Amino acid sequence: MNDELVFYTHPMSRGRIARWMLEEVGQPYRTEVLDFATTMKGPEYLAINPMGKVPAIRHGDTVVTESAAICAYLADAFPQAQLVPPPHSPLRGAYYRWLFFCAGPVEAAVTNQALGISVPEDRRRMVGYGSLAEVLDVLETAVAGEGYVAGDGFTAADVYVGSQLAWGMMFGTIEKRPAYQRYVQRLTSRPAAVRAQRIDDELGAAIQAGKAG
Known about the structure:
Blueprint: E1 5-9, H1 15-25, E2 30-33, H2 43-46, E3 56-59, E4 62-65, H3 67-77, H4 91-114, H5 132-143, H6 156-171, H7 178-188, H8 191-212
Helix pairs in contact: 1-3, 1-6, 1-8, 3-6, 4-5, 4-6, 6-7
């Protein structure tokens, strides 16, 4: 069976989330760097992800898109990395809860805010997140302690939650609350996170140098 792990990405994209997760898993993988305007919309990649967006992974014959799904898949595919609570652990609920809370309400609320979309107060029941303020307050309860979002152990959910917070605070779409900053600092100091950032920073620099040349 072909179990090659291929990673499709661009260094200035949500692919950074998947890169971090791949480094945490610690399995060999091959990287395919795509261009937003050309190869990402070309027929070869559209056969992988018809949305024409990154990241995506191909593990043997299995294709996974969407950053949160990639994190969850890799955690299950490589259990030796211990990045997911055991199936019957009560911590599994918190793991799923915060992984998909960030992929759903947080992502939607932050994106709408960045686009200047304001939901009238009397229409908040129509959107899954209610309001950005409510989402950020709830998220703060998940990261306020000294542990992680699913107990005392680091999991794939932390990769996704931490990435969303780090990216949002960097670009000003999420306010820099002390609880967020402490949590992100703990996560981004992990060796896998440092490696992933270095790899993507170097790729980004090489792409920019190529354009300049």
